[in-house]
Task: inverse folding
């Protein structure tokens, strides 16, 4: 990659961030923060899932919530559904990879909790099934996807669909978005003690 190519990539990313800023209204962001904060205040689980790079993002989000983002505060009840490799591989081997997250939502999900679902396409079968299971349990779903939201769009209480079809660009915007959400949720959690 040349310096000129890198500069072009940065400019593309900045343009995409501007499009996302316009697309993600303050009301949508506030609603996501409110849903997650409500679960935190009720000590209900914040479940997070994704595949591949989105699994890494799910781990990152949970690390920020259980540990800390910017402030010292009590831990938040958050679980990354792609982190338990024994559960995932056993269930995938004996039953179905498509259900690895849904099974864990059944185990850990509770009404009043929330599912944060990450899928750049919005069509990852196991993430979609997790969202379906969460909704059946009365848990709201906040989704981060690429353009249009795929199948997750219809299952989401709040949808952040990045206006792009480029997986790397979508994931870069997701990082900016979830860092902002973590900061807002942490501020709300700090205010409750």
Result:
């Amino acid at each position: 990659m040349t310096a000129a190519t890198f500069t072009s990539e940065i400019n593309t990313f900045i343009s995409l961030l501007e499009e996302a800023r316009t697309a993600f209204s303050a009301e949508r962001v506030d609603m996501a923060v409110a849903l997650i904060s409500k679960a935190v205040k009720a000590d209900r689980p914040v479940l997070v899932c994704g595949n591949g790079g989105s699994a890494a993002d799910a781990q990152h989000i949970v690390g920020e919530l259980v540990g800390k983002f910017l402030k010292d505060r009590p831990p938040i009840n958050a679980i990354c559904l792609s982190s338990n490799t024994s559960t995932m591989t056993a269930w995938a081997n004996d039953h179905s990879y498509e259900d690895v997250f849904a099974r864990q939502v059944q185990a850990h999900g509770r009404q009043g909790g929330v599912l944060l679902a990450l899928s750049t396409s919005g069509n990852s079968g196991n993430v979609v099934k997790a969202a379906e299971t969460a909704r059946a349990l009365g848990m709201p779903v906040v989704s981060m996807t690429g353009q249009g939201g795929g199948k997750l769009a219809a299952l989401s209480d709040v949808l952040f669909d990045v206006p792009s079809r480029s997986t790397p660009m979508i994931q870069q915007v997701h990082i900016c978005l979830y860092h902002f959400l973590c900061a807002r949720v942490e501020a709300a959690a700090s205010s409750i003690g």
